[in-house]
Design a protein that fits this description.
The chain has about 250 residues and is α+β, with helices and mostly antiparallel strands. The protein contains 10 helices and 7 strands.
């Protein structure tokens, strides 16, 4: 039982996607379903369902009818069926964490990623500590005024437009403008923020400074260029030496 609890804790509490795995297990408590049925009922795309089902199979929570891809259905393993009280205990702990505002506040504040929340008017309404350090602004700076975060207003409008159209911006490299007027290169993810009724209420930005990476790439490029130049010079010296040697041999 402890071993089952450890496995459940790992795939629900210890990994991203715990909420979806709980939903799949609860659905399969009713009866077996195939992947397409689970995708429709849980309103998750097919690839997401398949990924989480594979994780559950690997951890011996779910098993397959093994009748081939077409018509193949999935159901809970006997071990999990007989110990659903263990599953419910882990889920209760998971729900306690998710329902704790202090947990999320502490998690966000401690994050090394820059986290910024905008309202629908594109006004900044939240900055964590890393964001304040990165862009050189405090939340008070944004009171009753709209301050441009992106160096390029076009970049800002394009990323917001994509997020508004339910097309999350992931791993996008751009440039932020800091409070001191300097710029910083960042890689960001932007998405919509929804309330409990699934209404669009704002935008989230998660960004990290990639200046060091860019600078490192620049140094590496320059070093490669220097090495190539040195190699060319060396090859030229060798050709000249070879030509002189041939001339000396002819004279001899």
């Amino acid at each position: 039982m402890n071993e089952l609890k450890n496995r459940l804790s790992y795939i629900i509490l210890g990994q991203k996607g715990g909420k979806n795995r709980v939903a799949i297990i609860n659905l399969l408590r009713e009866r077996p379903y195939n992947l397409n049925q689970m995708s429709d009922l849980l309103e998750l795309n097919y690839r997401t369902i398949r990924h989480h089902v594979n994780v559950l199979i690997k951890n011996e929570m779910v098993q397959s009818s093994r009748t081939g891809t077409y018509g193949e259905v999935y159901f809970l393993t006997e071990d999990l069926e007989q110990n659903l009280n263990v599953f419910e205990g882990v889920v209760d702990k998971f729900d306690d964490i998710l329902s704790s505002p202090d947990f999320f506040k502490d998690l966000i504040e401690r994050s090394h990623e820059c986290i910024i929340i905008l309202n629908l008017n594109e006004e900044v309404i939240f900055l964590n500590g890393s964001a304040q350090e990165l862009i050189g602004h405090t939340l008070r700076d944004f009171d009753n005024k709209k301050i441009q975060i992106f160096e390029s207003i076009k970049d800002q409008r394009d990323t917001l437009k994509n997020a508004r159209n339910m097309d999350p911006v992931i791993g996008y490299d751009t440039v932020f403008k800091t409070g001191s007027g300097k710029t910083v290169e960042v890689s960001l993810t932007m998405d919509r923020v929804l309330d409990n009724d699934n209404h669009h209420i704002g935008y989230s930005i998660i960004a990290r400074d990639i200046s060091h990476r860019k600078n490192g790439n620049g140094k590496q490029t320059r070093r490669i260029a220097d090495l190539e130049e040195a190699l060319k010079e060396r090859n030229g010296d060798l050709k000249r030496e070879k030509a002189l040697r041939k001339k000396a041999e002819k004279r001899a």
